[in-house]
Amino acid sequence: MTELVAATGSVAARRRAERALRLGGARRGCLRMARTRATPTRQLMARRFPRPVHFILLAGLLVGIVGVLVIRRLAGPTRQIVDVAALDRRERVRRSSEQRVAEALDLLDDQQVDRAIELARQVTKDDPDYAAGQLLLGRLLLAAGRSAEAEMPAARALELDPDNPEAHFQMGYVHLLTRAGRGAVAEFKKAIELVENLGRPVPISYHLSLAEAYAKQAQTDLADRQVSRALAIDRDETLALCEGADWETLMLVGRALTRRGEHYKASELFIRAARLRPALAEPQYWAARSCSVVGKHAEALEFIDGALQLDPVSEKYRSLKEQIESERRGLDLPGEFTLK
């Protein structure tokens, strides 16, 4: 036993153990020696944290791990799964849509509007996010006189491509035909603004359409200003667009030509407007005035009689008829009739 203590304990411990053995307490000395050797280890093991602190440390660790994961999720690079097959299908559909749009335009040139509309409808069905297809369908419906149906594709085109001047122009034209011009001015002005921002010349049709929208709102001065701009840009193109124009545009351009002193051309436009709207007195009156200026007294009397039938109490119409009859007979009545 002494050898065991001597090999494993310290000097003081050995002395105490030897003393215990000499006193006859071998068992007691061995136990004391064991306690002496275990004291440093037990002291180290006894350095424990209180039990609540364990839970706090564990919770903190978990929070930290979750925070790191969240930060990496938000700030780290994300990888999106690309469906290559879907992209390929979309590209094929778009190429097909572009081809069918071109075919529909050819049909429109050949005056096959109904077939062109069917083809354009198929394009919008297969490729609803194709703005050009929506615009084409709206244009074809307007050409067919189905302005109410044109509003939906025009609105869809504007939603898909809000910075497209043609989309705003088409929506403005739909408003011009279906809503008595309400909302048309804003759309036409936006279309002109977008074209100017692109640095391109504004189409004459934009100015003429804006003029008509102003006229529907009884803003005659603003309407005349737009027509004057169109004539200043290109007179011949403006007159060419009047070939298929409605009576209001014909009246606007006719008055602008009258102010420019182009009475013969103005009389042609006023006569066409009067023929288009025989139930309206004002086109008949302007046709009579212009015919009188260029010496077409028989036609002037025909038109002014039509105006008087529609409004027999109008002093303006009666005065013009007297002036025309006087010129026809070669008589001079007091006063002078001039175009304003």
Explain what this protein looks like in three dimensions.
It contains 18 helices and no strands. It has helices at 2-8, 11-22, 26-45, 51-75, 84-109, 113-126, 131-143, 147-160, 165-178, 184-197, 204-216, 220-233, 235-241, 247-259, 263-276, 281-293, 297-310, 315-329. Helix 16 packs antiparallel against helix 17. It starts with a helix and ends in an 11-residue tail after the last helix.
Content of β-strand: under 5%
What's the count of strands? 0
The appropriate CATH architecture of the largest domain is Alpha Horseshoe
Distance between the termini: 141 Å
Query: Low-confidence segments, ≥5 residues, pLDDT <50?
Result: 1-8, 333-340
